[in-house]
């Protein structure tokens, strides 16, 4: 069975893409799913968050730029969880000027080579809208959009949806699309109003569990740990376990 | 953008367009092919004539059966591999129709293997006309040949193919 390829995408920064990628993938791995997560952000925040610190080591950059086999770039970081780091040259993809639309198809081709045994491949996208994100959208079957509950994130979501529609039209495909409410502050009225607007436009497409804002989620990357290692059993760990089950079972708001 | 209820903290709803344009339906696709050209088409005979083509919406043909009947939605036009003086007139006709009916037009140029100056000038005029009408024209996934031709003619920037070629429109 071919792995489900999920792009964790939002061109707005600070909405929880990497936090979602780190903790959701670890939660899924703990539930027994075989996961590969690709750090597709040249800032390498996913790599650091999972405790891998080797700025010179190649990763997905070598796969895309030099044609290396993806399987050789896998780093087992947790049980059932493999990481492909960004690598120091990933930013060069954004500067590619030759190849036309084929520049957007590098990742898809790499993921379809060889026999893969993962259940899921997650792509942690950069907060931008360039060639890297185009590659993620060419490759992905599904799009998972972390959203904060503030007005500018809503504005960003509007832009993102326009972009996704263009890709669906150009590539003649329809993505499975879901949103995750991250950094949610239940006591804030604005949070509820933003969620209400999103529910109006995306009925049945918002994962049932909201990830509430906590200091612990901000702290764990500096120790290279996921929330399950940093404070097992805490509220955020429970949120992400519930989110992983929502994701697997298709449980939506 | 639509305004929300008075009690809401969301003053303007940036997602309102998704309902307005019926988000769950794909944009209309219009293929421009040689088969669609009929003998009654009056072909332009030179690039100079092509450059004088005007996007007069009053001249748009009435027969637009393949386009959406609901005005204001986006539409996609897929360019044929060979775009030259022999099919520029039919392309002009199609684009004029679309500009009259849609606010957002995406032109998929990924299949283009040959394009002449007449067609490029037509696209440029269309884009400028759309700006004047507060509408939007995008060249999506331009092929290498399309980009090279646009750069040769010095209109790549005006057609925004550099931005489009980045893979993200």
Automatic annotation (TrEMBL), chain A:
Coiled-coil segments: none
Top-rank taxon: Bacteria
Gene3D superfamilies per the UniProt record, alphabetical: P-loop containing nucleotide triphosphate hydrolases
Pfam families documented for this protein: AAA_31 (PF13614)
Stretches assigned to the AAA domain: 4-174
InterPro entries the record matches: AAA_dom, DNA_Partitioning_ATPase, P-loop_NTPase
Family recorded in the similarity comment: To B.subtilis soj.
Protein name: Chromosome partitioning protein
Automatic annotation (TrEMBL), chain B:
InterPro entries: MlaB-like_STAS, MlaB_ABC_Transporter, STAS_dom_sf
Pfam families: STAS_2
Source taxon at top rank: Bacteria
Region (Disordered): 23-49
Compositional bias annotation for Basic and acidic residues: 23-32
Domain called MlaB-like STAS: residue spans: 85-155
Protein name: MlaB-like STAS domain-containing protein
Species this chain originates from: Methylomonas denitrificans
Taxonomic lineage from the root: Bacteria, Pseudomonadati, Pseudomonadota, Gammaproteobacteria, Methylococcales
């Amino acid at each position: 069975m071919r792995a489900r390829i999920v792009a964790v995408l939002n061109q707005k920064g600070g909405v929880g893409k990497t936090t979602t990628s780190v903790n959701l993938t670890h939660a899924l791995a703990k539930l027994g799913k075989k996961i590969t997560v690709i750090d597709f952000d040249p800032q390498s925040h996913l790599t650091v968050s999972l405790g891998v610190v080797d700025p010179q080591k190649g990763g997905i950059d070598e796969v895309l730029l030099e044609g290396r086999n993806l399987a050789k770039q896998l780093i087992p970081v947790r049980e059932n969880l493999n990481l492909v780091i960004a690598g120091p040259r990933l930013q060069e993809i954004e500067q590619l000027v030759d190849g036309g639309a084929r520049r957007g198809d590098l990742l898809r081709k790499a993921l379809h080579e060889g026999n893969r045994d993962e259940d899921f491949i997650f792509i942690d996208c950069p907060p931008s809208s360039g060639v890297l994100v185009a590659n993620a959208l060419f490759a992905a079957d599904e799009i998972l959009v972390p959203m904060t509950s503030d007005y500018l994130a809503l504005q960003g979501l509007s832009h993102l949806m326009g972009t996704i529609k263009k890709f669906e039209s150009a590539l003649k495909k329809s993505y499975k699309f879901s949103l995750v409410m991250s950094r949610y502050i239940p006591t804030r009225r604005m949070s509820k109003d933003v969620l209400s607007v999103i529910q109006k436009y995306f009925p049945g497409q918002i994962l049932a569990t909201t990830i509430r804002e906590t200091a612990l989620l901000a702290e764990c990357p500096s120790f290279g740990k996921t929330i399950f290692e940093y404070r097992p059993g805490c509220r955020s760990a429970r949120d992400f376990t519930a989110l992983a089950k929502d994701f697997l079972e298709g449980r939506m708001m | 953008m639509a305004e929300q209820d008075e009690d809401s903290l969301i003053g303007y709803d940036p997602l309102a367009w998704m309902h307005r344009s019926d988000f769950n339906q794909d944009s209309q696709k219009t293929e421009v092919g040689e088969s669609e050209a009929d003998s009654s088409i009056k072909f332009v005979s030179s690039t100079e004539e092509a450059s004088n083509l005007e996007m007069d919406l009053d001249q748009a043909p009435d027969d637009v059966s393949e386009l959406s009947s609901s005005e204001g939605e986006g539409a996609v036009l897929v360019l044929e591999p060979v775009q030259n003086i022999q099919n520029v007139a039919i392309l002009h006709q199609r684009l004029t129709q679309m500009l009259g009916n849609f606010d957002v037009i995406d032109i998929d140029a990924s299949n283009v293997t040959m394009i002449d100056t007449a067609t490029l000038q037509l696209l440029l005029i269309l884009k400028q006309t759309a700006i004047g009408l507060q509408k939007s024209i995008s060249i999506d996934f331009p092929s290498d040949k399309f980009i090279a031709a646009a750069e040769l003619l010095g209109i790549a920037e005006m057609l925004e193919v550099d931005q489009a070629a980045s893979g993200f429109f």
